[in-house]
Amino acid sequence: MIPAQAWLLAHVLASAASGTSAEDLAASLTALIAVVVVRAAASHGSQVTALRAAAAIKERLRRQLLRRAVELGPVWLSGQRSGELTTLAVGGLDALDPYFASYLPQLLLAVAVPMTVLVTISAADWISGLIVAVTLPVIPVFGMLIGQRTKARAERNWQQLALLSGHFTDVVRGLTTLKIFGRARAQEQIIGRVTEEYRVSVMSTLRVAFLSALVLELAASVATALVAVEVGLRLLYGHLGYPTALFVLLLTPEAFLPLRDAAARFHASAGGLAAADRAFEILDAEPAAGGGTGRTWTSPVPDLRSAAIRLDGVSVAYPGRQPVLLGADLTISPGERVTLVGSNGAGKSTIVNLLLKFIVPSDGQVFAGDTDLATIAPEGWRAQVGWLPQSPAFFPWSVRDNIALGQPDAPLAQVERAAELAGAAEFIAELPDGYDTVLDERALRLSAGQRHKLALARVFVKDAPLVLLDEPGAHLDQVSASELEAAIERLAADRTLILVTHHVSGFGGAGRLLVIQGGRVSEVRRELAAAT
Asked: Which residue, 267, 284, 301, sits at the end of a domain?
């Protein structure tokens, strides 16, 4: 539509200047208006399509990012800053809108439009076409040189924003502790300093963007002026017709406009590209040694009600640390109760993570029956595993939905029965809306004992044949710990139960007692362990 619009406009103006009546120009004016309408509609359709595509791409990228984080597992996640990941998944990817909805379409126009205009001008006046062909590459060359500098600054801006977001999130989470120890003011000063650094970095990037726009505008103006001067001189001496001269002058700026717009929109999209680089780093990340899950899942999931669990010479080494397990051997029979005891860092949680398929052995194998755990799909395996961590996670959902986390379709009667078995039914009944009460963030209005009971109710609802309990009595008072232990005794019936604890005198008064020390797993008598 661009050459058509320029030709019709030049024809109308030249005809009007030569005295042609309005009636004779009616057809040309109608055609001009139609071209303008079609061009506007095409522009609008392009923007709508680009915005929809950008929204679809962001949704897809967020899903892939979350899926990859799940695949990499909690071990990888523990080495990341949650504030940075949150900023990346929300605001960071939202910054891709200018790239997909604006820059990429403009980049295509920056190739198609100048070439079309150049061919059209050359066909009308080869001298003007030659000048445009010589001056046209100046803008993309300048744009690339300036764009490289802008990209580097945008990456620095993103790093500053990620640092600020991560630090701010950590401060908010630990605000109570900071207030108690009188360190809130110091953190306020740190946030102020990082914010100021971010402000300076952003303003520096904007300064480059504004200066680059001036340079590109100047280059385009000079090139257009050269065409205008040579066209004006040839028109003055009668070497060029008025309609042709007017057509060339109207069309020449259109050759440079898409290139200038593409450069300007690149600056607007640079922040999103920096965030996307970080997103692709996560998508391309490989699990560290001991920190990932297998990807070749060819074996069916064995029934853990009849299949024994066996660790055969298992070693696990985390990056930058000494090996936690060294050739550990362990067999757990179906329905057996096992208590794992060891000091901090001895490897208790590592065994739990192995059985949850959060990590894989650096050496050795884990078997369920005769099946290597590495060949079993994580989703199918975890469907048979119940887990009670030290600090259970809760979500701003109803009590019922939080309990039915592992079985979302569980009927209310099943949820109530699980709460009763876990000892949580009494305090749930006292909540404002009972099982429909919506918990606050992390269920902080509940006591630690109440949160543990809700988490234990989840395990009852899931009714998994293998149950893993990681320090269930940690941070609980004696009464809450006794109530929780009674609930665990009910849970242990007809299930394989593995309990992790620091103290022999704590939970786990029955079953085998295993001590982890020096990367090895050994069985001891409870009487001997209590005495030592």
From this structure: 284
